[in-house]
Design brief:
With 461 residues, the chain is mainly α. Helix content is 63%, strand content 1%.
Length: 461
Amino acid sequence: MVNPAKITWDNFIFDQNMTVSRTICLGFLAVIAVGTILLMMPFSTSSGEWNNLVVALFTSTSAVCVTGLSVVDPGTYFSFWGELFIALLAQIGGLGYMTTTTFLILLIGKKFDMRQKIAIQQALDRPGMSGSAQIIRSIIATTLIFEITGILLLIPAFVPQYGWSKGLWFAIFHSINAWNNAGFSLFKDNLIGYQFSPLVVLTMTSLIILGGIGYGVILEGYMWLRDRINKRQEKLVFSLDFKVATTTTLILLIVGVIAFLGVELRNPQTFGNISFGNQVLLAWFQSVTPRTAGFNTIDIGKMTNAGLFITIALMFAGASPGGTGGGIKTTTLRVLTSCTKAILQGKEEVLLYQRKIAYPLVLKAVGVLVGSVATVIASTVLISLTDPEVAFVQILFEVVSAFATVGLSTGITGSVTISAKLILIATMYIGRVGVLLLMSAILGDPRPTRIHYPEENLLVG
């Protein structure tokens, strides 16, 4: 029996009776609860009055889940303190609950035990447990380097227009939100006012891509560049994660630009009536932001249905594992497409870059897809019942944006019923912690079995 006098925060976080998945899921809920309380305080609102509970809960969930959906205009509704809390919540959400907690443990000088290493491994989706402390330090350092770089690049765009104090804060806030793929903006029209600014567009898209591609990929890229500069004879062999994440991201970005130019080129409310160079700039941003940032340089509600559906597809695909984005992830998409390719070629093995994909990973990819589709369908059906007057494509767009933690909206977020807002809150949470992790937290860790059943054929397709 545990002596109550000896219970510590560390024991609470890593209680022996609590699984790792439950620790992570409850940790995110705890951060959301704290954020809700802070955003409800009078000093968090520009009016100086107590905030509405649903508004505070929705904003806190959206920030912690790095989504960016908002039922109010953050730049006018919240005070500086409210905006600061949103930025901090997005930072914690982007790093992940386990990464943030582990970093705090490192700061106070404590050592990891086995359960902490397992938790970090599962939270970061890493193959092994060695070097956990060094990985956490590298993640924090990488985050700071890129966010500070983003701030320095955005200062020339914001300071001349808003002055040093306000312009600097705008640069800090948007850099944090871009790197963490959160999507909150302090401008009333998001980034539409900077849609033709190459500095803002290229800076924000670079932060979004690098933040969502995964820390492991960035570290591998850094080591490759370091070896090239030092002219080392030993060549770095890129991991399969690096190859899949980079190539899939590049393919989706190129396809996105071409697709948006194709369907929106003649739409006068989005890409029409402007020069081709600016059209490419708009298409580039619109291809990047669904992966899964939530900023916009055009009015999403005025896009064609084809444009909306392409955006939905890109949002559902999402970013890469180990990054700050959501969605089913690029690796899941590549495993599933490789499965299809193997079937069409009559092969019994799933191959990627001359490497065989393990059968359990194929099952995991299928599980992620089925769970994600089920969540999107359930949320869409429920909101269609609570808000029958809203167009179906708008509901589907909003649900996928919430689940994939994107934050793009056709403009219905603030006008839907409270029931719909609560459904979106649950959807954002499920999308951030992950369908499989949440099911593991509810059902408990799977137990291995020695029982094997006879094999039998089944007609499929």
